[in-house]
Amino acid sequence: MKIYVPMDSAAKALGADEVADAVRREAASRGIDAQIIRNGTRGMVWLEPLVEIDQGQGRIGYGPVTPEDVPALLDGKLESLGPVDEIPWYARQTRLTFARCGVIDPLDLDDYRAHGGLAGLRRACGMSQAEIIKETTDSGLRGRGGAGFPTGIKWKTVMEASAEQKYIVCNADEGDSGTFADRMIMEGDPFTLIEGMAIAGLGVGATRGYVYLRSEYPDAIRVMNDAVRIARQEGVLGPDVLGSGKAFDMEIRMGAGAYVCGEETSLLNSLEGRRGVVRAKPPLPALEGFLGRPTVVNNVISLATIPVIFEKGAAYYSGLGIGRSRGTATLQIAGNIKYGGLFETAFGVTLGEVVNEIGGGTASGRPVKAVQVGGPLGAYMPVSKFDTPMGYEEFDQNGGLIGHAGLVVFDDTADMLQMARFALEFCAVESCGKCTPCRLGAVRGVETVDRIAGGDPAAVDLLTDLCETMKDGSLCALGGLTPMPVMSALTQFPDDFACHKEAAE
Amino acid sequence: MLHALQDSYGYVPQEAVPVLADELNLGRAEIHGVISFYHDFRKAPAGRHVLKICRAEACQSMGGNALAEATLRKLGIGWHDTTSNGTVTVEPVYCLGLCACAPAAMLDDRVAGRVDEARMDKLLNEAGA
Questions:
Q1: Which fold would CATH assign to domain A416-504?
Q2: What are the NADH-ubiquinone oxidoreductase 51kDa subunit iron-sulphur binding domain coordinates in residue numbering (chain A) (predicted)?
Q3: Which end of chain A is more exposed for a tag (fewer CB within 10 A), N or C?
Q4: A321-411 in CATH: which number?
């Protein structure tokens, strides 16, 4: 009998370690010969800790399980959720990037191979650099970190640059609120990120890779370090990748708690051991990146999606999605939501379907007021825009951005003026200080919102003007996009700004 | 190097700055600049345990602010402060990636989700605050 108890931090945060201890203890006292596997999460966070039992007839799910439930669980008296693969929330997904996450033992390379792992890398080993780039371009994959830049074009630039040394840098500084896809895949299927980075290395001719991983994710850091060590022992990484004669190796570097280091040039400075201030572009990191050498900087999900593209082919991947948004979006449904978690599906599903049908509405049971899509720099979308399909251009046309595809739901108790103030306060704390619109603008912005709250009618125009300056004059997305949540709150929810005015009058 | 120093001493001592500057052939101002840039590096030792409470949007949507305020009030301290018995330092954190089970907190390296006042009291008890 196999018993799966997730070791994902969301599951642990809800008591999975205590459940695993109880399973071990109770199984021993009953003389049950059980193999306990600590898997990643299936992404159904509202069911965590989700325990699965496999007695040879498929995996049956139970959840959420408490340590007190464990005796009944082992005696077969606990009500089950049925086969996990058939739970509707899970079954209706198109799981490609996350196909193995929650299914396999994250650090068992044989289990990884048995579920299609390394097939993509093996195929890439037999391809020329140009063929690898073409496959990536043809897949239509765009940067999943938020910017949506075509991955293949970025790789081509690096491939064509001539240099003694090139680098692959994975941006795992997932600091946006409402996002956890990077953490989940690194904890639940770390080899897929390693494989994706190795394919990128072969494609552009880079032999070294780094994962810049935020210090707020101690569990992910542990799993990734173990996975890199195992991959090296097994010849997936090293001087002779899978016997191809080509070299690629990588290491994990830990951040130190600076949000702005998720911006690629600031990340590179931090990786070099400097202050994480933003660099002016050009030069592009693709030409002068880490240590001044040509560097691919990609988000975790972009790189972790590469293996399945090479396993199933570019045409298969690009066959999914809408418009110029090809493949799958790894939606992270969070905040005040009944069924929160990670939901992977083809681009094109509407915001309303995600929040109401998939997410089941708010956890509090109150009406939805706003959904912030794409992290702290994303717009607050009102219910009137719920027919917007998930797609880069589609969101852009509706005054938002899809970002890393994280959604934070708020019920009608949310005060949008306070949310706008928080966005500016956050920008002020996290600004790297290099450019004035962001460094000073954020501080003045907080003061201006307070003036609106105090009933100053002139302050609204001033805030609008300030946001324009920040948007146009900032070097990077932190200053440039902070106006997005502020202005969307102001224009979509004017009542929250007006009532303060009236109250003051 | 700074992470290693903080791991060993619990903070990055001022005395380390000239040593690092010398070793790396950099100015003291540059070393100071790097240390002061990052939220993680401390100038003084923290309490025996560090409690991080998430202040980001997803946790706010589930009452994270009220939880944080109540906790600080109970302990009688502000953000970044340490309780008078030296057991717990409370720090803000912007997102622990536990947004689908908000509000979230982390006691040392241990994460906790759907934290209400009872759960927080339990955490504080364990920490000896």
A1: de novo design (two linked rop proteins) (1.20.1440)
A2: 417-462
A3: C
A4: 3.10.20.600
Return the C-alpha torsion angle A306, A312, A317, A318, nearest 10: 110
| Amino acid residing at A83 | P
CATH topology of domain A2-91: Glutaredoxin (3.40.30)
Average pLDDT over residues A65-94: 97
| B122 and B67 assigned to the same domain | yes
* Phi, psi for residue B92 in degrees, rounded to 5: -80, 150
Q: Say which of A256, A275, A336 has its CB closest to residue B33.
A: A275
Name the DSSP letter for residue A458.
Answer: T
pLDDT, tens digit, for every residue of B83-123?
999 999 999 999 999 999 999 999 999 999 999 999 999 99
Distance in Å, alpha carbon of A406 to nearest chain B alpha carbon: 9
Statement: residue A501 has pLDDT above 80 = no
The residue segments making up the domain with residue B109 are: 49-127
- Chain A neighbors of B64, CB-CB under 8 A: none
Q: Which CATH class is domain A109-318?
A: alpha beta
Residue A203 has pLDDT above 70, yes or no: yes
Answer whether A9 sits within 8 Å of B111, measured CB to CB: yes
Q: Where are the domains of chain A?
A: 2-91, 109-318, 321-411, 416-504
Q: Are residues B27 and B76 in the same domain?
A: no
Put simply, whether A292 touches B (Cβ < 8 Å) is no
Measured CA distances, A153 to A19, A132, A206, A298, A460 (Å): 47, 12, 16, 12, 41
Contact B111 A12 (CB under 8 A): yes
Q: What is the pLDDT of residues A418-441, one digit of tens each?
A: 999 999 999 999 999 999 999 999
Reported as a single tens digit per residue, the pLDDT across A51-68 is 999 999 999 999 999 999
Cβ neighbours of residue B108 under 8 Å, at least 6 residues apart?
B49, B50
DSSP reduced 3-state for A294: coil
Residue A495, number of CB atoms within 10 A of its CB: 11
Q: How far apart are CA A266 and CA A314, in angstroms?
A: 32
**Mean of pLDDT over chain A:** 96
Nearest to B100 among A180, A376, A419 (CB): A180
Residue matched to tokens 């371009």:
A137
DSSP labels for B40-103?
S--SS---SEEEEEE-SHHHHTTTHHHHHHHHHHHHT--TT-B-TTSSEEEEEES--S-GGG-S
B9–chain A Cβ distance below 8 A for any pair = no
Rounded Cα gap, residues A392 and A397, in angstroms:
9
ipTM of the complex: 0.94
Do B33 and B55 belong together in one domain? no
